[in-house]
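Format notes (please read before filing issues)

Several people have asked whether sequences and structure tokens are stored in separate files. They are not. Every record keeps both together, in the order shown below: the sequence lines, then the token lines. Line labels are part of the format and must not be stripped during preprocessing.
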Amino acid sequence: MSEPKSEQKTPARVSAREELEILIRARYPIIYVVSWEESRIERRLKEIANRRKKQLICWSVTTGLTTSGSMTASRQKGLADPVEALDSVIENKEPAIYLFKDFHPFTRQRDSNVAVVRKLREVAQALSDSYKTLVICSPIVEIAPELEKVVTVLDYPLPDAAAFDRLLARICEDVAAHAKLKISLTPEDRERIVQAALGLTLQEAENVFAKTIVTDGHLSAEDMSIVFSEKQQIIRKSGLLEYYESTTDIGDIGGLEQLKSWLQKRSLAFSEKAKQFGLPAPKGVLLVGVQGCGKSLCAKAVSRMWNMPLLRFDMGRMFASLVGSSEENIRRAISVAESIAPVVLWADEIDKAFAGSQGSANTDGGTTARVMGTFLTWLSEKQQPVFVLATANNISQLPPELLRKGRLDEIFFVDLPNAAERRQIFHIHLRKRNRDPKGFDLPALVLASEGFSGAEIEEAIISALYDVFYKGKELESVDVLEAIRETVPLSKTMAEGISALRAWADGRSRFASRRDDITNTELRRKLEM
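Then the structure lines:
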């Protein structure tokens, strides 16, 4: 009999916070920490230094070398010159951790940095046999090729929910001393506020919490819009994504009950309770179908339903004239979206973005194909709660890689509205324009608008309103019926294309509306027997 194999234990995943201390204890000479939060990194290094009985010495181009916590330390050798500062690191014999802030301009490949790059290689060699560590903190990675083998890069992520919960607890304690200020948060509201703050730095979160309290004297779950406004600033500064302020509710969409139900069931899937239950965050959904039937409207409504920011992903913004810039742009856009997660990423008319990818090698040197390849790879491997809601009208332009399971959770086909759905759409748009639907002959309007999309119904109502406003009379059913008769719907001008869409969707996707609600008489071939 063979001996039983010993069980192999999967090593526990180490957080960046723990990894930093491990690297220092293992005496890695130069650690490059990628983070926007200098003060957070400095506090962590101070904890490690105190525990390891080492001194923490900081450097910046404005202060030179200073002992952490003292801006008046001696600067006889700690001048702003980076080469002199690195010389001091080598010469000091005492155990210490050195934190060099915003050092990336001196580590990138430039002729003016030759001396600094050379000195860093000497520092790496000298520190490998000492109890000293050099930590470079920078928001971006800039490393000359000569330093790639001597520098260890560590991505320090933004604070997690636990860190924001501690921050909120501290703010609650501070506010408790002021009678005029009030914080009214249930455990559920507190979790929603914490989830909304994910993607911010601790300083940004503290600022926005203070802003909400100063604005109206209290902090509650209703102040999430102010938290989202802080994230809007991040998006605006990136220039690659568009923050969309949605005012559309799910009730503003007529029909599509299957899709609405699917979205409603996932409204709580981003919570901590869902994670403990074993649920992964939803990846995304692809909406294909007839133009003007509510696909884009759903993207706007889901962000309000889930209380999450909505980012519009425009592929046209990704492309730049410089070689390699387009690929870098989409990586940056993805990084920005992940940095403020949880978030809804709306990729509208994604079929147009994919249209040029198949012949990309002959038209743009393969740039479009590489950009789309980066996007598809990210869809498969993304770990952050970024819900991708993609819409498409022409399925022939979509690559098979996008349609397979794993990249998105589901594909829904959005068809022309049936009679019951058209009645809802008329009701919604008449109410929206301060008209009572009870005063209109809805059965006649529904019958006359057979084959109309939701957008075409809305446009017919608007057109009728223009007519009656010019005539100086009130809107009536006959006016809307006249506008409907004057409209040639897309179902007639593109009948073949819509039939092809239906044929493709049958068996390949879920229907956004219930199949048993679809009347058999709509848009079917008429036969004489």
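For reference, the curators noted about this record: Confidence is low (pLDDT under 50) at residues 1-11, 70-78, 516-529. The first helix runs from residue 16 to 25.
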